[in-house]
Predict the structure.
Amino acid sequence: MRRSVAPSRPDPSIIIETEEAGLQGAVGADRATDIVGERWEGYLERIRDLCRMPSVSATGEGVRDVADAVLHMIREAGGEAELVETPGFPVIIGEITGPPGAPSLLRYGMYDVQPAEEPDWTVPPFSAEIVDLDGVGPSVVCRGVANSKGTLASFFCALDALREAGGVPVTIRFVIEGEEELGSTNLPAVVTERASDLRADHGVDLDLYGERDGSAALVLGCKGLLSLELVCRAGDWGGPARPLHSSEAAWIASPVWALVHALATIVGPDEELLIREIADAAAPPPEADRPLLRELAAGFDPREHLRDAKASRYKIEGSPQELLEALIYRPTANIDGLEAGYTGPGHTIMPSEARAVLDLRLVPDLDPDEAAGAVRRHLDREGFGHVEVRPLERYPWAKAAPDSRASRAMRASYERLGRRPLPYPMAPWCAPFYIFDRLLDMPWASGGLGFAGGAHAPDEFATVEGLREHTLGTVEFLLAYAEGA
């Protein structure tokens, strides 16, 4: 396949050398990409085979089998690996040793997926069938193919191509968990306990970040997350101990109205965040982020994003860069769902309990435990001490250096395949990237080519071409990282 080659790229017929060791483990760059082409049909089946195996952490379905399969993939690639047991599902720790003096990478990954119980899948959700999707083209449709078993399997396909072409030019350590969809509850303890086995020069996470316009995200940070359950039920403050005829609303307080009013103190009519300690954590972009923001804004089309989001307008106004600054640097509070009472016809009751699930997106210097305390204190001040607050999932924020070796290598891999980087100083979503910078004190980057969509939804997909491009991009990233990018 013809590739776009960055001007600084050495002649691909020449060996790739590790920065420290000189001539070690020659790898022909063109040969590795040729091998991906020659073996692609087999690689695609390998990706589909892993995705066909359910690994639903919410129910436990198939999780152990997939953990064993990933363990085997590391060993098959010439590495060593073990399952580290936790109170939940095991974490896989492993290593593939590169040439003497080679730089090292810690590759984070996940092997669990969300449930696939929605009724409106076009094909069975774990069939990994190839479907010609309207406006997208031939795609593997399967729960987990986009998030993120498709990229996990692709990584081992890239390693196979590199081995055949001369050898994997870097040392790769692995930490792969089976609970990201549950909030990575047991990951921090494992990473802390096994830190000496996970130390590397840089960390990396790979995903399908490509867009149809030829760009691809480069993620250099992510917001934190706090998911909360708020419950209002009858008690000394008032309300019925069991559902009550609604005529008694004249003199008995409603737990549902109480919860609605409590929620209205958290976010105002214009959806501005009203919890002072959280809202005040918002800050202008750091100076080091501003060049990245300008680069990101130059490739961002607000109208196209509205079309993709199936929304008619933004709730704020501003230039592309101002919109992105709000997305990235403002904390937010969102109601994921409300649950109370009865919504059918002809049944007039006062429910005895109401429940809401919220998620708060947190910016640097605001950690989940601090945010949970701020919510509790806010509700107490506003007179809603009777509303229970129970933290559910939590992720600390993470922030990477913008010009690390891993970041430069990711950019180089994009450019060599003719793709434009879209650098996010912080992604508005969350992932457990804090293990790199906040637990292991390690620079990191997250990126990857290939187009996918529908994560967590019916007909989750990754295009066949996108999976191939992701595999090629992984080859290019590892070679660029070995070169020093």
Remarks:
- Confidence is low (pLDDT under 50) at residues 1-25.
- The first helix runs from residue 29 to 38.
